[in-house]
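Session log. Operator J.P. requested a structure for one protein chain; no other inputs attached. Running the standard single-chain path with token output.
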Amino acid sequence: MTKIGRNQPCPCGSGKKYRRCCGDPRSRPDAEPEGNGYPCLTRDIPGAEAGPLALDWLFKHHESAALAAFGQYFASLDGPEMAAILSTPSMMTPMIDCNGKELLLAEGVLQMGDAEVSCVDFVTGPQGPALTDQQREYLRLMGSRPMSLYQVVESRPGTGFHLRDLIDPEEPVRFVAEAVLAGRLMGGEGNHFGARLIPGEPWRLSGATYPYGKEQADQMAELIRRELATGPEPILGREIRGTFISHGWLDSLARTPPGVFEEVTTGLLPRWYDLSTSEEEPN
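Structure written below.
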């Protein structure tokens, strides 16, 4: 039997590459359901699989509205800054994309005809995808949780870390289960990052992570505290946190000298859902 190269035309006659058609593991009868293109989003909380499923449904059935809302993630960047983001190394692409998709799902606003509707309300409503009650409750919980800036005060490699909230000092130090990041990269003791915590036993990250330097994190936390001191409504307060943290991180990333990265490539994501299309794979 002749082996079919992954980049060769699929023998089924679809006109697609084999790896994009019958060679795609997701095309097998026993393949997992849609939503597996977001490995960075939390999955080990009851109902959390709703995040990837809702994103897949949203971009499949309401692509224009979803893309417009997703574009607000980059709204603070001018032309040269956006070009700099598009030139970040390919290893940064999954994080940039995942952070933006998490922000879209949790805080995004969709323009549906003449009406504006929150993404969470839309995907959990009667017009949304088929979800279980548990999955809808998870999405509503995710949409109600604010983002914040955290300092790692203790790291337990392979298990998780204890986080101190820099924006709300009255919040208790919380243990967050996160085996991958704990003890590495931003999960090391003394490091700082923005994230959305999901309560539970134990608490977990929603999936979005925004690495910050100490000085930058302290300045951003102070800026957000000043904005929140004006007493905005809870929804607006959540938007202030999410917007400032995400835009501050992207702005910083855009100003990072190219030489800091190990490699530089072009293109953020040719398609919203497919990380593998950023470069050709060998046959």
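Operator note: Helices lie at 50-61, 63-71, 79-86, 93-107, 119-124, 133-144, 214-228, 234-254.
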